[in-house]
């Protein structure tokens, strides 16, 4: 029986060509040609997986987010999940729909952020935990990889056990011919290769996990840059307010000084006018007192004259 007929073949989920299970990618079940031509990537904004359709278009933004960017501009970070996918308002479409269906957000048991939504259905939980969408997807991928790795290890163990059994039968048959040692030396590399195959199948250079890490770093950098820009804008606005207040204070102080100088001049002029009026009034008082004294002297002299002339007049018999 040939090796092609004994080895089970599985179909690629895109081109439907049949390959051994170890040659297909974990999760997506794509062959090497489809993985290299049309890889499955994660959207930079909504973080959902999508298949690239052409080799010329290598954008990491899905069609829905691309249309939203054209319609609403670049998104901001969601106030719940912190994914940069809030095109309208402060919430992404996923969190807004979940909040409308299931109520307010609760704390995720994995990332400890308030971005999970309780569906009140234990079947929707992953491993019995209430997780947010990002943690759910990550845990599902990890469980799928672990399950696939265990299944591949079991298959290889079964194959190695079967091959050992076949080799034992061959060795029994060949020992009669004297060729048992050569066959056993030739079987050792095959067994080593079969033991190394599960690890080779697990390490996939075209996996999209590194894209997730890069996307997280990009989002962190973008959020930090936005925070820095906001802080710089706040500092600029505060500096502008400080300069405006300083200018206003300078203008107020100059106006007050000018007003005080004007009032001092006005007071000086008024003081000089009052002094001049007082001097004039004092002069008038002095002249009036002098004239009054003169009038009193004249009146006294006249009265004295009148009294003297009355006593000197002769008497008649």
Automatic annotation (TrEMBL):
Residues 155-170 have a biased composition (Basic residues). One of its GO terms (cellular component) is nuclear speck. Residues 146-207, 292-317 are annotated as: Disordered. Residues 298-317 have a biased composition (Polar residues). Transmembrane segments: none annotated. Keywords: Coiled coil. Belongs to the FAM76 family. This is Protein FAM76A. It comes from Pieris macdunnoughi.
